[in-house]
């Protein structure tokens, strides 16, 4: 429970108390309100006339004389209308001063209570008893309102007043009540309360088999029992006869053709499906689905509007038709079809809209809507996706002034592509193996389950902001696709980013058409052996850091970069066809892990690519690097002059120091050799000794300069890239030689 400071009377409150004590007015505390605002230290609370960031208000709280010098106001706040969790930082009481409502007193929190968003099942309430000290409470003129919700304390006080013995009470009849929970209310009769209890017990008794109930305009809600030959008259009465726990079974409501003048609300049915089965064409006033799974398999239904909320699901199969003839007013707009609060609408059947000139379809608060065939005209807006909502359609025949609108991360998928919203702030999403793509919201306490789902809820236009997806360690059997983002930064970070921890495993990732902005991928191990592990195509700025590609395959490249700017740093790739391959791209390849070995080709640059290879290491393989069709490498010194190369050089008759450099890596380039050899065996006159592993000359044999006291008979390079040395005399140990040459090569 929270901890709160003593109530502070405002100046306006003190003035009203003085007037009430003088008999000029009756003190009427008209409202109690909550506020989430955190007032800064030093705030003059006495001067306040209203609170900031008001979240809830309760009318006519009960105020009584508590003692000779104190009055007490009791108020209950419930979360049944709370859409978003907030902290109760302040509670204020309000009074009427003439025709104006002013702040009477304010209670501030040391440790605030948290008011959670309503989950559609069980409500949360807080009761506050707010006491104010006055000069002479007994003489205070107070208006008392006795209405409101009774607390357990109220009930106990009333039982105590009668001596507490109710054992002989007889209840002659029970009221028929449709309330969800048996909560007592001040002033209600016992038979009404027990009527609630009977309804509650019936609701929690589970369904025991697939069941069918019948409804007909000629039926009766009084004498009918829902059977085929004795049907109910309304759908609402039929729903009241069905247990809330469907227990894994389906319940069919077979509805005869006709007009049913009722608002149908299907709410809180769990563990099964409700099937509406129109026999011909039926008409209802409107349809609401809340926290239930409802579907229509066939037939035709006309309804004023469709509203699916609180993780509800509504399916319209392809053989069914729905005519939506009016609208529901919400947030100042008239809406024909709406999904709210993580709900799903899937309508592959035909949907025909009429009677509305505002918005056809809305998906909001992480809901999803799919429409197979929808038509309507004369609308201001066709489809509105808001706050993570998604709308998809296959065949669209909506005519609207503005066909698509997206707000706060909403996404609209057309058959021809994606239209998405614009990010309006920096955002963080969270992913975990223990999360859920259905009930999660991407927060740190309610993460999503898959990386792909999280990427899909991020607006494609990043609006100049950064969207960061934080992924917990685990195995994600996903081929992740990042497509079509622009205008900001998208960061995919494991919880061990900046290290090669090998704890966050993903099959593969494909990044495509990332426009202006930057895409960062950090701290993953890509495990696929049946395709490229990393593919980058058409992206302007990608940085892959501290990632590993460890799935061994000599068939597939580790990382393929096409027509993009892409950097790799502190990564590892082993046992692939090409470790990293650039095509028509630019980028930086730096500081690869020493375990980046076993590849057929370490790193390649093709089709005009320009790759800067810098730092402490690069991927290596049977062939360390490869170029073609104008691809180039640029080295630490900013040119195409390599560092000293020793890889591949072998000398069976001595140890060597030095190597060669290449100036240019595409087409004809220049090789410069500077190699010092110390023989490990005595050399015999006119025997031939070779040193292997140099680039092949492009124009036959090449003269090699020789520096030693021994005069050679021959010293040259063969066209296979081997230095041939033939001494004219015996060469005893110890001895040494220096070979140098400059020549052209095409390899």
Write up this protein.
7% of the residues lie in helices and 48% in strands. It is built from five helices and 50 strands. The strands form seven sheets. Strands 26, 28, 30, 31, 33, 34, 36, 37, 39 and 41 form a ten-stranded parallel β-sheet that branches. β43 and β44 form a beta hairpin. The longest helix has 15 residues. About 3% of the residues have low confidence.
List its salient traits.
ten-stranded parallel sheet, single chain, 50 strands, mainly beta, nine-stranded parallel sheet, 747 residues
Secondary structure topology:
Layout: E1 3-4, E2 8-9, H1 11-21, E3 29-35, E4 54-59, E5 62-67, E6 70-78, E7 86-97, E8 100-115, E9 125-133, H2 152-161, H3 190-204, E10 211-215, H4 235-240, E11 250-267, E12 273-290, E13 293-303, E14 306-309, E15 313-324, E16 328-330, E17 333-339, E18 344-353, E19 359-364, E20 368-386, E21 390-407, E22 411-414, E23 417-420, E24 427-431, H5 451-457, E25 466-471, E26 474-483, E27 488-494, E28 504-512, E29 517-522, E30 525-526, E31 534-537, E32 542-545, E33 548-549, E34 559-562, E35 566-569, E36 572-573, E37 578-583, E38 586-590, E39 599-606, E40 610-614, E41 621-628, E42 632-634, E43 654-663, E44 669-679, E45 689-691, E46 702-703, E47 705-707, E48 712-717, E49 723-727, E50 737-745
Parallel strand pairs: 10-11, 11-12, 12-13, 12-14, 13-15, 14-17, 15-18, 17-19, 18-20, 19-20, 20-21, 21-22, 24-25, 25-27, 26-28, 27-29, 28-30, 28-31, 29-32, 30-33, 31-34, 32-35, 33-36, 34-37, 35-38, 37-39, 38-40, 39-41, 40-42
Antiparallel strand pairs: 1-8, 2-8, 3-4, 3-7, 5-6, 6-9, 7-8, 16-17, 22-23, 43-44, 44-50, 45-49, 46-48, 47-50, 48-49
